[in-house]
């Protein structure tokens, strides 16, 4: 018996009907993600990256095809798929700790256990002592770390991340990437991560899917030949730089198509 | 101190800001005094400031005005509370369920352009001249605007905040209670503050006909007996009451939503 992949995306396409006609956001796309794998999707903006992720999250219905998680078809949003958006989505009226335990509280997990989980993740994301703070008192990078902790505290089967560091400055972004890798190594979660940043896709991913310009299609799948665990020094290795050049070429081609269709 | 006074959008020194507000009041008072004490206006139309103060003192000392204030306040409060009790949940439902918006927005959008005062004759036919009619005028004057404003507040909740809640496992009812309600609460309290202000402005209209007490009635009586000083005192009382309520709402807002301020609780 062969093991089935964690996530299967089977012929998924998405067409939006708008006032000015039909927009093909995503051409029929198929790929799969293995248990515990960190997969990044790289593509120019507007190519349908968010659409894929939103279909997997169940927030958008595919126009064609199916998505399966652990062999079960996805019909709508649910707590088995945690999501982190690019925009800040912490509940501003809840403290950091109550944000992290939001999903647990919905499920009726006992308070004591909620606390343990919250403090475990606060420690992991490096925000020990921030449990009573409110989101408005946090920097952008801190907010996104809490959003990651909130998603993970729910113990989802897969973590979906839509350019979560896209709004952060370059220095903060690098640090966030390292923190995310640490969290991933500790939690052993399967992660599907979207980005338009070439370096980010290499540094984080086991495997990169490069997308074409709109209508989005998968153009190429590349396995990342870097060792684990990684830190920022890997960004200077020859393998990294070679892959970066290759991807920059691929992306540039697509970005040009997007600008001059 | 005088930096930036005439630069658009620049902050100025705090005392200068407060001072400007006080100066406007003093200028208005000065203008009024010149008109009155200079003998430019007939005191039968505009009494002098000291006359107003004297009237106010006697009115409060005789005590009758307190009853009027109490009665008027309870009319405004009851009519407004009724509008809020129906309008807030309805507005929230309209802001979150498209079917509710589709059902109610057109009709409310239409009725709100009909002047509440024009309904008075109809209301008198329907429910007579009692307290019900007065509450109904206040209700009609505030309900429709309030509902639409609450709808807008609820509609403007960041969509991703709702979506992330679904991915955290929230079901429809939990979403209402735990996300939509707390997310729209500050906007709702602010809406109530603004519409309560409007409720006061409908008071005199409501007490115009068939009233035998209340501030509006007192003002009408004063007009009949050519007592402009009493009219002005009545108007000032309504203004001050409205202002006090506004400050109370603002205090509630500040106390309840400390999470909106950087310095925290
Ligand atoms: N709700 C929608 N209605 C209409 N068009 C949409 C909608 N969502 C996305 N699109 C279009 O689909 C394309 C892909 O969008 P998206 O998946 O957000 O791209 P990306 O995340 O790669 O930038 C874009 O051209 C976008 O304008
Ligand atoms: Mg996107």
TrEMBL record, chain A:
InterPro entries: AAA+_ATPase (IPR003593), ABC_transporter-like_ATP-bd (IPR003439), ABC_transporter-like_CS (IPR017871), ABC_transporter_ATP-bind (IPR050166), P-loop_NTPase (IPR027417)
Domain ABC transporter: 7-238
A GO molecular-function descriptor: ATP hydrolysis activity
SMART domains noted in UniProt: AAA
Designated name of the protein: NitT/TauT family transport system ATP-binding protein/sulfonate transport system ATP-binding protein
Record's keyword terms, sorted: ATP-binding, Nucleotide-binding, Transport
Family matches, as CDD domains: ABC_NrtD_SsuB_transporters
Keyword flag Zinc: no
Keyword Metal-binding in annotation: no
SUPFAM superfamilies, A to Z: P-loop containing nucleoside triphosphate hydrolases
Organism of provenance: Brevibacillus centrosporus
From TrEMBL, chain B:
GO BP: any one term: alkanesulfonate transmembrane transport
Gene3D superfamilies reported in the protein's UniProt record: MetI-like (1.10.3720.10)
Keywords attached to this entry: Cell membrane, Membrane, Transmembrane, Transmembrane helix, Transport
Signal peptide: none
Membrane topology: Multi-pass membrane protein
Domain ABC transmembrane type-1: 69-249
Key word Transmembrane helix present: yes
GO CC terms, sorted: plasma membrane
Keyword flag Nucleus: no
Compartments where located: Cell membrane
Residue spans crossing the bilayer: 12-35, 76-97, 109-129, 135-154, 200-219, 231-253
A Pfam family it matches: BPD_transp_1
Similarity remark: Belongs to the binding-protein-dependent transport system permease family.
PANTHER family in the cross-refs: ABC TRANSPORTER PERMEASE PROTEIN MJ0413-RELATED, ALKANE SULFONATE ABC TRANSPORTER-RELATED, MEMBRANE SUBUNIT
The protein's name in its UniProt record: NitT/TauT family transport system permease protein
Organism: Brevibacillus centrosporus
């Amino acid at each position: 018996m062969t093991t089935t992949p964690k996530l299967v995306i089977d012929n998924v396409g998405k067409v939006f009907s708008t006032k000015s006609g039909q927009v093909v956001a995503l051409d029929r796309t198929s790929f799969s993600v293995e248990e515990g794998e960190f997969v990044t999707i790289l593509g120019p903006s507007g190519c349908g990256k968010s659409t894929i992720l939103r279909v997997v999250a169940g927030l958008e219905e595919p126009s064609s095809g199916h998505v399966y998680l652990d062999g079960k078809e996805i019909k709508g949003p649910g707590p088995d798929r945690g999501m982190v958006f690019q925009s800040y989505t912490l509940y501003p009226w809840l403290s950091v700790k109550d944000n992290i335990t939001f999903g647990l509280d919905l499920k009726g997990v006992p308070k004591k256990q909620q606390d343990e989980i919250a403090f475990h993740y606060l420690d992991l994301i490096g925000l020990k002592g921030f449990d009573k703070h409110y989101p408005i008192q946090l920097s952008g990078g801190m907010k996104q770390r809490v959003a990651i902790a909130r998603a993970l505290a729910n113990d989802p089967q897969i973590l979906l991340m839509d350019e979560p560091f896209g709004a952060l400055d370059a220095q903060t972004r690098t640090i966030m990437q390292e923190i995310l890798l640490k969290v991933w190594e500790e939690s052993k979660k399967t992660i599907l991560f979207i980005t338009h940043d070439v370096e980010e896709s290499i540094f984080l991913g086991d495997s990169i899917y490069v997308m074409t310009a709109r209508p989005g299609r998968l153009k190429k799948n590349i396995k990342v030949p870097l060792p684990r665990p990684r830190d920022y020094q890997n960004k200077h290795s020859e393998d990294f730089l070679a892959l970066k050049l290759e991807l920059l070429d691929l992306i540039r081609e697509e970005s040009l198509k997007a600008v001059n269709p | 101190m005088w930096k930036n006074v005439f630069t658009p959008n620049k902050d100025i020194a705090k005392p200068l800001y407060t001072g400007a507000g006080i100066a406007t009041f003093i200028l208005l008072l000065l203008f009024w005094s010149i008109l009155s004490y200079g003998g430019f206006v007939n005191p039968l139309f505009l009494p002098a400031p000291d006359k107003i103060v004297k009237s106010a003192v006697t009115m409060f000392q005789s005590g009758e005005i307190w009853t009027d204030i109490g009665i008027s306040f309870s009319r405004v409060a009851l009519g407004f509370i009724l509008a809020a009790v129906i309008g807030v949940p309805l507005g929230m439902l309209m802001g979150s369920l498209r079917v509710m918006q589709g059902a109610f927005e057109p009709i409310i959008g239409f009725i709100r352009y009909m002047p509440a005062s024009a309904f008075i004759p109809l209301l008198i036919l329907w429910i007579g001249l009692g307290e019900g009619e007065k509450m109904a005028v206040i209700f009609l004057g505030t309900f429709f605007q309030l509902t639409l404003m609450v709808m807008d507040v609820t509609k403007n909740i960041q969509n991703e905040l709702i979506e992330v809640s679904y991915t955290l496992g929230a079901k429809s009812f939990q979403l209402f209670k735990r996300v939509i309600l707390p997310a729209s609460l500050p906007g709702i309290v602010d809406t109530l503050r603004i519409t309560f202000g409007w409720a006061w402005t409908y008071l005199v209209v409501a007490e115009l006909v068939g009233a035998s007490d209340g501030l509006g009635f007192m003002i009408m009586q004063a007009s009949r007996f050519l007592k402009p000083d009493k009219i002005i005192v009545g108007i000032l009382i309504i203004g001050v009451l409205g202002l006090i309520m506004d400050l109370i709402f603002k205090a509630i807002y500040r106390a309840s939503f400390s999470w909106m301020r950087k310095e925290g609780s």
